[in-house]
Design a protein that fits this description.
heterodimer; A: 252 residues; alpha+beta; Alpha-Beta Plaits; 2 domains; four-stranded antiparallel sheet; 8 helices; 9 strands; elongated; B: 108 residues; mainly alpha; 4 helices; 56% helix; flat; disordered N terminus
């Protein structure tokens, strides 16, 4: 007995085994609970960490949250290699197996619809950064010789700055249009703040694309080709992710 | 039964994903289900608000890279600080407004 059930994902039965050393949150290996032809992937977690009160407290602890998010994601990643999982949001916890079964019955029709829609698809993340401040890039400003000269230099720097954003945004929307054509679906996420992420440059595009596995290689090549296209613009690709951004039933 | 083909090897590890990439997915996307342990939507909303407060105030922020909630248009660090201070005040108000709401919900 004892212990709560932390559910990572729901998927169809799959044949391949998960990596043997795979550990979920709280260090327990994930198990499968099959019910009505669907599989919940879960692991046992201790009450002292995952009951309501301790969980709430933990969620505000960034170190705990980081560790748990990574463990959650590593299980989802492992599943993505062998099947098409529907990833559940972090910290979906039940008392026992029967609680999980009740949930699966209640959501069965929806799970099946979504699994049908996402079967064989993965999510790719693409971020575009405008790399450099033009002030650092442009010709050296030189020492202004007068107030008027100083203002002129300032204006021209500001103009170069605007041009760069304009340029980066044009590039990003063109790239998004191209990638959207090659993907079955896409989502635009809020850009990540460069000052906080530590990534250099400013994030001007943060998008997710739903792509069939079979087309993933060419999608990745397409993104790779854009990487050196423009000076001052950096393109980052992440994935394949489980289709996190596309599990909602209605669009956008 | 699913028998997916393996993905191109160099891309199967998600190596370039940063923590912000992971958090924006596991916290903000994915299927939302009310478990027996009730971290309901409101709690997640609270969590998001609280995280943002924490992130705005500690050095950890840089490393974490959490801020999928917004696009900060300001380019000067001064403006950013002011913006954060203003936002913190706003978020605290919102938090205060949410907390009693949650209390009510729990009382049948």
């Amino acid at each position: 007995m004892t212990g709560l059930r932390y559910v990572y994902a729901v998927c169809r039965p799959f044949r391949s085994a998960l990596q043997t050393q795979l550990k979920g949150v709280a260090g327990e290996p994930p198990k499968q609970l099959t019910h009505h032809g669907l599989v919940a992937v879960l692991s046992t977690v201790p009450e002292r960490d995952f009951a309501e009160e301790p969980l709430r407290a933990h969620l505000e602890d960034l170190d705990w949250l980081t560790e748990t998010a990574r463990a959650h994601q590593s299980v989802i990643d492992a599943l993505t290699v062998v099947t098409t999982p529907l990833p559940l949001r972090l910290a979906t916890v039940f008392r026992d197996d029967s609680g999980v079964r009740i949930m699966m019955e209640a959501r069965e029709a929806e799970f099946r619809r979504t699994l049908d829609r996402l079967e064989g698809r993965v999510e790719w993340g693409v971020k575009v950064y405008a790399e450099a401040e033009p002030a650092e890039n442009g010709p050296p400003a030189g020492t202004p010789t007068s107030g008027r000269d100083y203002l002129r230099q300032r204006r021209s720097r500001a103009r170069a700055h605007d041009d760069m954003w304009q340029h980066a945004e044009t590039f990003a929307s063109r790239l998004h249009a191209t990638l959207s054509e090659r993907a079955e679906d896409s989502r635009l996420h809020a850009p990540q703040n460069a000052s906080l992420s530590g990534a250099s440059g400013r994030n001007v595009l943060n998008a997710a694309y739903l792509v069939p596995r079979a087309d993933s290689e060419s999608f990745v090549e397409l993104v790779d080709r854009t990487k050196d296209e423009e000076a001052g613009i950096r393109v980052e690709l992440t994935g394949p992710w489980a289709a996190y951004s596309f599990v909602g039933e209605e669009g956008a | 039964m699913t028998t997916p083909s393996r993905l191109p090897e160099p891309y199967s590890s998600n190596g370039s994903a940063n923590l912000a990439d992971i958090l924006e997915r596991v916290l903000d996307k994915g299927v939302v289900i009310a478990g027996d342990i009730r971290i309901n939507l409101l709690d997640i909303e609270l969590l998001t608000v609280k995280l943002r407060l924490i992130v705005a105030s500690v050095d950890k922020a840089r490393e974490m890279g959490i801020d999928w909630w917004e696009d900060d248009p300001s380019l000067s660090s001064r403006a950013r600080r002011d913006e954060l201070a203003r936002e913190n005040a706003e978020l605290r108000e919102r938090l205060a407004a949410l907390e009693p709401g949650r209390g009510q919900e729990e009382i049948p």
